[in-house]
Structure formats: C-alpha cells, structure tokens
Specification:
CATH architecture of the largest domain: 2-Layer Sandwich
Radius of gyration: 21 Å
Largest sheet: 3 strands, mixed
Number of strands: 3
Strand order of the largest sheet: 1-2-3
Number of domains: 2
Distance between the termini: 57 Å
Structural class: alpha+beta
CATH class of the largest domain: Alpha Beta
Strand content: 15-25%
Shape: elongated
Number of helices: 5
Length: about 130
Amino acid sequence: MAQSRRIEKVSALIRKEMSHLLMTGIKDSRVNSSMVSITEVDLSGDLQHCRIFISIFGQEINRDEVLEGLQAASGFLRGQLGRRLQMRRAPELTFRLDKGMEKGTSLLNLLGRLEEERNNKDELHPELE
C-alpha cells in the first residue's frame, strides 16, 4: 500500500515538472509548434521507466513531429527531472499519444450530428411525434 502511494506521489511530481518543462524548458520548434498537455504519467514500480501520455492539439502532421521532438529531448528532460526531483536515478522517459480526448471529441461530434438529424426529421415529419 505504501509503495503504490509513493509511486502515485512521484508520478504526480513528474507530471508537474514535465508540464513546467514543456512550457519553458524545451527549445525544439517541433514541440513548441503545437499545444501539448500531459494526460497521464505511468511509472513502473521500480521507478526506472516512465510512460508519459500526451495530448497534442494541432494538425495530424504536427503530432508525429511533436512526438519525435519529445523523444529527441528525452535525455535532456530526464536529466532535468533528476535534478529537479533530486532523484538518484531518473526514469527512462517514453512519450505516447493519448487518443482518449480525440475519441471523446469525435463521439461528441457524432452525438451532435445524430441529434441534428433527429431534429431535421422531426421538422420534416411532425406527424411522427
């Protein structure tokens, strides 16, 4: 139980520091070209591996470039995390695209279109009500 709380706490600290680093620490134009937000941090039990799930708001083409930029900067980011969190050994960082927000947005768009179609049918055939 204490181990999982420790991992959650370190994950939250990594998320906070990574968010700050994404805003101020990375000079790569590939990363700065879009709005990037961290949706989840998945840290292994031994604190050696960290998957950072991100959401990228921008064009589809830019998403691959942003991921490449983040992977290229992962060594720098790992070093910064180690210093900022005073970790003896910072975890290996991998970045993954979180498509959950995209799926949610497309689902909301689909529901909106269905509602619009239903309203249009009701207007064309009021006797069906």
